[in-house]
Design goal:
The complex is a heterodimer of chains A (440) and B (765). With 440 residues, chain A is an alpha+beta fold. Helices cover 23% and strands 30% of the residues of chain A. Chain A has 3 domains: 249 residues, Class I glutamine amidotransferase (GATase) domain (Rossmann fold); 112 residues, Macroglobulin (MG2) domain (Immunoglobulin-like), CATH 2.60.40; 35 residues. In chain A, the strands form 7 sheets. In chain A, strands 1, 2, 5, 6, 7, 11, 12, 15 and 16 form a 9-stranded mixed beta sheet that branches. Chain B has 765 residues and is mostly helical. The interface between A and B is large, with 47 and 38 residues.
């Protein structure tokens, strides 16, 4: 079933991918105020360059609708209208989550204002500071306002390009809850903090007196965070819409060094729109070691070989390629609890194939081969195949047991005894007859 | 000699014998016909359907056997039962019933009679009841004579106590087991009478069949040794007993060990030790007899004393030692509950929760046996009159079975045959006495009246004297004889005879009416289909169970796991063909307790359990709308108790009662009750039915709160026409990793409370 689905998906994606970069489709809805549309030309152009078809829509426009008859109309949605209080009625937090379950990827920008999106952020376990509490930093010294901050990119990141220059940021930061699906992309600098710039330094003092409560320290905050939902769809939350703007893209970080905003926007869009770090399980098979046909049920203590084929999406060629780079995947053989948990390692020489041979436990029941690979940034891989593990057949047990020798000995001695007894009896009878005959 | 009415005197003895045997054959076939016909109420009133719960498993297993053959059945591992543990069916089932049906099926198909396996299963029990009547006839014939045998056959053919387990469609082990029980006993009595190894072996073969067919074989395993032991203690050891017992025990035990489910139990569990012990004792006694014939009596008595004492002590010590070491399994809980009726309730709620394991109520003795229960003691007393070896057997059987029938409702079934036999003996003695034309002869001395003349008209006369004759040595008749020394005893004239016979025939007639009524009204409901009466008296069929099961069958993927209380496991597997968590084969207490815990916990606690067991659908039975009292809310306390047995910290029975100790479902219900999954699933949207009016639960006669429970982790998937079965779908995990309660709140548009980052710093003071 699973393999069939992936097969169909494979063909669907093949047909769609000849043009698009994304593994998920190339239609993008951009929700942006008509007036601000020209502020993001660099970002939009880079997306178009990648092969995406952009459709623009103002927040209060009724068309084009995001979903028709519960089927999402677009593969990806970007909402850059962070200041808008009201959206058209088909864009609500609930409908956005509904879109996520349909596989639509979302790129959402927040602002320091309280909007519908801020309440949605809470559902993703993002903790926003109170309204109009932007990120503030006094470092490095610069001419810009305190709320316009160059955020250094992390030294190593799966999502962002290496050696990315600092990224200009202005907007609201967020703290991360304990949701394991969150993928931190860009953290706020440690020396920054979130503060109400209007009320001055008093709030800061109050917060310190309360033992840090309500003190939004930069070390705890992020400015851009990804979210990998269970269905496979991706969401990226960015604290401020300016990050994508032409102004910040052109702005220099220091003398002669251009900001990393353009590249950052491209990287984030690539991750969100399922170009990078996208994996899938093409197929899984299981069979007895030394054979090739899969069985519906195995016997306890059988040696079972399980293999999975895994592909990774290559955005440059828009194709799925076998991928052998996963070194920490595990296979579980589960009935209620994992009875066996073993490393599922790539097979050298056959790209994309991961295989393991193990001895089935000495316990009958309905077992599942479970692959549950969840790593931050990467697509979640999940596969579950049910097989029954049965006790040996009535003729599947060893015939002669050394432990049973007392019984064999008993049976043999009784047979021999019976034979001897019969022989003696018959012999005695005949002698008696002879004796009688003699007597006569 | 004077007679009360003229007897034909010109009949040759051969004519009389032939006529009698023809009449017997006709009577037996009529009895068989009546036995089968009276069991067809279920088919006529409802349809040809498998009944109740266990038969559904037997039917499903039989289909596998018929379709795939015996070896595949033997090795059948059922992955859909006890999900995800699975069930090794071949090793955990008594295959006798399925094998019997399979043989019949293959036989009929070999004759090119394409009979559906379902019809064979439905009609098996009535068919075997005819055989039971015949076996009872043979057995009773050994006790008294053919006329008593015919009466016994007629009784067992229609007695409700047996019909209750053998109507058409009641495809359960008991359906064939009673025939095997009676026939094994018959073979045993025959073997004992004749000292025949052939009949002993025959008894062993049918004992094997019985072992393969029903767990109640333990009754035979203990009855026959007990009979042997009592005979030895009465000083009635004979070589006949030795031959009969030894051949039965050796062959019977060896063959019974071939049944996979029984395995080594006959040599390793306490229930079977009596048979082994008596077997050993017989060898010793036989040896002692041999010794006695070779040594003088004084020496022998000393020797006997020493040997018996040492052997007894040694045997007992060995038994205790082996039990202590674990080589012999101690008595099982089910067994203890036979001695102490309160035991199960205290220690094994799962056994106590089965309604047929409850002690028998007095009325049910009358319901099941009617006037036989009054005749039964008379028949047992009559057995004392002659007290041949086989009469001892009936007496022991009567005593044991009476006790067990009083302890457990379902063991009424083992009592029924002996009641029929003893009553038939009593009734036929009564008839013999009063139909007999002989009158006491004034001229003949009282001593001669001991042997009443043979009467040709009333079939064969027994060797046994009528109660009128005082020579049988019974203490009672001696007393009576002593009290009235000069009066002659006997029956004079036709009037007394007439009065008694009319009365007796009247009893028989009323018995037939009672049996017909009890069978038609009480024992023929399939319990899969319910019947009620419309206002105009016509029958209205309530078919909610099958509606729900077919919904599951048609609308869910084949691998969808259904959780329900264990009562419905077999039916879901049989009719809906979906994997179930627990079913009526209650071998794993923990797994059942897990389901009990899920049902009696709140949604948040239950959800991880449901996810862990891959549950897709939850099915509950709710009778509140219709007044169907066998629903899950009424069984709910058992779920709580069973769960409490495994998780005493998490589930506590008192929490489900109000502080006043009442079991309520209305607004006074306890919080644990109201939050439990079972309560929520039962009453979800129930009050909406009443459109704002008072919503009454018609089973418990309480008003359910107007604001019904809400469900966050389950979705209502299907509710049947009369709300008897409600099916809920378990929601999949939330897309965003939230708990489903807050996800649900979000979907309904509720605002989440603003959260703050966890403070990691402490102020320096």
């Amino acid at each position: 079933m699973l393999s069939f689905c992936t097969f169909v998906l494979f063909f669907l994606s093949l047909s769609g991918l000849l043009h698009a970069k994304s593994s998920d489709g190339d239609s993008v809805l951009v929700v942006v105020e008509e007036a601000h549309k020209k502020d993001f030309t660099i970002f939009f152009d880079s997306l178009k360059e990648q092969g995406y078809e952009l459709t623009f829509r103002a927040p209060k426009d009724e068309t084009p609708v995001v979903a028709e008859h519960d089927v999402p109309s677009f593969a990806h949605i970007i909402i850059l209208a962070s200041e808008s209080k009201n959206f058209a009625k088909d864009i609500t937090p609930q409908s956005l989550v509904e879109l996520l379950s349909g596989g639509t990827n979302l790129l959402l920008a927040l602002s320091t204002k309280q909007t519908a999106l801020s309440s949605l952020a809470a559902e993703f376990s993002l903790i926003l500071p109170p309204p109009s509490t932007p990120l503030v930093s006094f470092f490095p010294e610069r001419k810009d306002p305190l709320t316009v901050i160059p955020v250094p990119a992390p030294a190593s990141s799966l999502i962002l390009s290496p050696k990315l220059a600092p990224v200009w940021f202005s907007g609201a930061p967020h703290a991360l809850g304990n949701n394991p699906f969150l993928v931190p992309i860009l953290r706020a600098p440690a020396e920054s903090f979130a503060a109400d710039t209007d009320s001055g330094a008093d709030a800061l003092v109050d917060a310190t007196e309360k033992g840090g409560e309500g003190f939004w320290a930069g070390s705890q905050l992020s400015v851009a965070t990804g979210f990998q939902a269970l269905g496979g769809a991706r969401v990226t939350w960015v604290g401020g819409v300016d990050l994508f703007s032409d102004k910040f893209a052109k702005k220099e970080v220091s003398k002669g060094v251009k900001s990393g905003n353009t590249q950052f926007a491209r990287d984030v869009a690539a991750w969100t729109f399922q170009e990078s770090l996208v994996l899938r399980i093409d197929s899984t098979t299981h069979h007895l070691a030394n054979t090739t046909t899969p069985l519906e049920q195995y016997t306890t203590n059988d040696n079972i070989e399980f293999s999975a084929h895994i592909s990774r999406f290559n955005p440059k060629k828009s194709t799925w390629e076998p991928y052998s780079g996963i070194k920490d995947m595990q296979l579980e053989f589960t009935m209620l609890d994992p009875h066996i948990r073993t490393a599922l390692l790539p097979v050298p020489g056959s790209p994309g194939k991961y295989s393991v041979t193990f001895r089935a436990p000495d316990r009958h029941g309905v077992f599942k081969f479970v692959i549950d690979y969840k790593r931050k940034g990467w697509t979640h891989l999940h596969s579950s195949t049910t097989v029954a593990l049965v006790p040996p057949r009535h003729d599947g047990y060893p015939r002669f047991l050394s432990a049973a020798w007392p019984y064999y000995a008993g049976a043999i001695s009784t047979s021999v005894g019976f034979f001897l007894f019969s022989a003696a009896w018959l012999a005695g009878e005949s002698r008696e007859k002879k004796a009688k005959a003699k007597a006569q | 000699m004077p007679t009360a009415f003229p007897l034909p005197s010109d009949l040759s003895p051969a004519t009389v014998t032939n006529t009698a045997s023809l009449l017997r054959i006709v009577a037996l076939s009529l009895i068989s016909g009546a036995a089968i016909a009276s069991r067809l109420f279920a088919v006529i009133n409802f349809e040809s359907i498998i009944h109740e719960f266990d038969p559904w498993f037997n039917y499903r297993a039989t289909r596998v056997l018929a379709a795939k053959g015996f070896y595949e059945f033997w090795n059948w591992f059922d992955p859909t039962a006890w999900y995800p543990l699975g069930r090794v069916v071949g090793g955990t089932v008594y295959p006798g019933l399925m094998a019997t049906s399979g043989v019949i099926y293959n036989f009929l198909h070999a004759l090119n009679l394409p009979v559906d396996i379902r019809n064979i299963c439905v009609m098996l029990a009535p068919g075997f009841s005819a055989l039971t009547a015949w076996a009872t006839y043979m057995f009773t014939k050994e006790m008294k004579d053919e006329s008593a045998g015919l009466l016994a056959a007629a009784f067992i053919g229609i007695v409700p106590g047996y019909i209750s387990r053998s109507v058409a469609g009641s495809y359960d082990n008991e359906a064939i087991a009673i025939f095997l029980l009676m026939f094994t006993f018959y073979c045993w009595i025959k073997a004992l009478k004749l000292g025949s190894a052939l009949f002993g072996t025959l008894a062993a073969v049918f004992y094997f069949y019985m072992v393969a067919a029903w767990g109640g074989y333990v009754f035979i395993t203990n009855m026959i040794p007990l009979h042997g032991l009592v005979l030895i203690l009465m000083g009635r050891f004979t070589s006949r007993l030795y031959v009969a017992y030894s051949s039965w025990y050796v062959i019977g035990t060896l063959s019974s060990m071939q049944v996979p489910f029984v395995g080594f139990q006959p040599v390793s569990t306490s229930e079977h030790m009596a048979a082994l012990g008596v077997f050993g004792l017989l060898q010793i006694v036989a040896f002692v007899q041999l010794v006695r014939s070779h040594v003088s009596s004084k020496q022998f008595q000393d020797l006997l004393f020493v040997v018996l004492v040492t052997a007894g002590l040694f045997g007992f010590a060995a038994f205790v030692g082996l039990t202590y070491k674990g080589a012999i399994a101690p008595w099982t809980g089910r067994f203890y509950s036979l001695w102490d009726t309160g035991y199960a309730k205290k220690h094994i709620p799962i056994i106590a929760s089965v309604s047929e394991h409850q002690p028998t109520a007095w009325p049910s003795f009358f319901m099941d046996l009617q006037f036989l229960i009054f005749l039964f003691p008379a028949g047992v007393i009559l057995c004392f009159h002659q007290l041949r070896d086989e009469h001892v057997f009936v007496i022991i059987y009567a005593v044991m079975a009476s006790y067990f029938a009083g302890v457990m409702v379902r063991l009424m079934l083992t009592l029924t045959p002996v009641v029929c036999v003893a009553s038939a003996v009593a009734f036929s003695t009564l008839l013999d006495t009063y139909v007999d034309a002989a009158e006491p002869d004034d001229a003949v001395a009282p001593a001669d009246s001991a042997t009443p003349p043979e009467s040709g008209a009333t079939a064969k006369k027994p060797k046994k004297a009528a109660p009128a004759a005082p020579s049988t040595g019974s203490a009672l008749s001696d007393l009576v004889a002593a009290a009235v020394p000069n009066k002659k005893k006997g029956i004079y004239g036709l009037d007394t005879r007439f009065a008694i016979i009319v009365n007796a025939v009247g009893m028989l007639a009323f018995f037939v009416f009672h049996c017909t009524w009890a069978t038609a009204s009480a024992y023929s409901s399939p319990s899969v289909v319910l019947a009620s009466q419309n206002a105009d008296g016509s029958q209205h069929i309530i078919d909610d169970f099958r509606e729900a099961y077919y919904w599951l069958r048609q609308n869910t993927p084949e691998t969808a796991v259904v959780m329900s209380w264990w009562d419905y496991g077999y039916q879901i597997a049989g009719m809906a063909d979906r994997p179930t968590l627990v079913d009526n084969n209650t071998w794993n207490n923990t797994h059942i307790a897990t389901v009990g815990k899920a049902m009696s916990s709140s949604e948040e606690v239950a959800y991880p359990i449901l996810r862990k067991h891959d549950v897709d659908y939850v099915l509950v039975i709710f009778g509140g709308l219709l007044g169907y009292s066998g629903d899950d809310i009424n069984k709910f306390l058992w779920m709580v108790r069973i769960a409490q047995g495994v998780w005493p910290e998490e589930i506590q029975e008192p929490n489900y009662f109000t502080p006043q100790g009442e079991y309520r479902v209305d607004e006074h219900a306890s919080p644990a009750m109201k939050n439990s999954l079972m309560y929520k699933m039962s009453y979800y949207r129930f009050s909406e039915l009443f459109g704002g009016g008072p919503s009454t639960d018609r089973v418990r006669n309480q008003q359910v709160p107007k604001v019904g429970p809400t469900l966050d982790y389950l979705d209502e998937a299907y509710t049947t026409e009369n709300w008897i079965v409600r099916i809920y779908q378990v929601r999949s995990e939330d897309l965003l990793g939230r708990d489903l309660k807050s996800a649900n709140a979000f979907a309904k548009g509720k605002k989440r409370k603003r959260s703050k980052p966890v403070s990691r710093r402490r102020p320096i003071l």
